[in-house]
Amino acid sequence: MCPIKDNKQCCSSPIYKIINARLLKNHKIVEGSYLWFQNGKIIDPQSLFFDHLRDADEIIDAKGQIVAPGFIDTQINGAYGIDFADYEGSDEKIQADINKVAKGLLQYGCTSFCPTVVSSEPAVYQKVLPHLNARKGSATGGAEILGAHIEGPFISVEKKGAHKQAVFRTAENGIKDFDDAYGDELKKGNKAVSIMTLAPELDGVTDAIPDIVARGIKVALGHSACKIAEAEQAVVKGATSITHLFNAMQAFHHRDPGLIGVLGAADLPIPESSKGHPEPSDTSPCRTKPDPRPFYGIICDGVHVHPNSVRIAYYSHPTGAVLVTDALSAMGLPAGTYTLGGRDVSVDHNGAAYVKGTSTLAGSTVTIDECIRNFQRFTNCTLVEAIEAATLHPAELLGISNRKGTLNVGGDADFVFLDDSSGEVKVQRVYVAGDEVKLS
């Protein structure tokens, strides 16, 4: 079937065909195949031949490069001097700043993202969240926004990281406390908020998870000092992700491994549906059904997590890995002082970011394509696995793999051309909704 319902549009809109490509499809790189797209969607050419008697209007030669889905970053606080938690300017300025980041991310192959807002006062959420609602991307307008990632303020004082403790909350009144914290935007569900990071050990938080999930919001566990039993109970209640694994959580201990220990869980209930859950792997509790263990975001900048730790996580739960940058406003800029949620952050010449005057890490300056290269190098995984950790896995986490994260028919025509001749992938060309981006 042609994905375009309007036959006139289907018959008149240009059809594009990519040749001489190595396509990342079905967990492998496929040669000798073509990618067809029209009206911003990947299409099946058979309907063109038999139903509309059409061929491609334009041929695009990939010249042997890999064509992969566009990268997805589910945790990014800002870039280019802009912090998504900055609410003091006019609505016009806030929107212009968001647009600047969205356009800049395309340079790194990031075609979709979840702008992240750290723990803030209600006034901040009320001002900025309406600007972070889900919106389509374009080659000129920037990467697609998939809804915000709100990280806190329902998090642990003990594991606060760079967050402002003064705004932290608990949830004795259940979902009402969340609505009081975030305002009316939370009631829009995943149109406004895609992911919420919270600490399950706080009063009322775990009991509120089903109500949050019922709104279509993915619950991630993070900035938490929880015990393993508390973490597993939160997963049973509906949490499906861990925020920046190893950071802002209890260090692994063999008698109570805490939140990290969920990666080794063997007796969690098997999900009834695969949507929103990792695919099975050789380490899954059941190798033929969705993995009940949560996805886990991991920052592969070589600063937040030692390469050996990245490797341990990957071998424990390979299909759960989701590469995130956790980038702050300093991404794309030189060393200096920047802001994160109203706090000053110092960035050194190695790109490491710390709360000014402390040794507390405060986000990264890494880009998503660099995360892919580092992940492959740290773990010795295949190139396909490294790319899928920034494409398929985040799409599965968000429950949008029907349109993002793959090159399947019916999906959005967001993809990148990658040169791997050096042994590491480098972004060469980027397409959003079927249109090519002019890279700087």
UniProtKB/TrEMBL annotation:
GO terms for molecular function: metal ion binding; N-acetylglucosamine-6-phosphate deacetylase activity. InterPro entries: Amidohydro-rel, GlcNAc_6-P_deAcase, Metal-dep_hydrolase_composite, Metal_Hydrolase. Its EC number is 3.5.1.25. The keyword Lyase does not apply. It catalyses: N-acetyl-D-glucosamine 6-phosphate + H2O = D-glucosamine 6-phosphate + acetate. Binds 1 divalent metal cation per subunit. The active site is at D326 (proton donor/acceptor). This is N-acetylglucosamine-6-phosphate deacetylase.
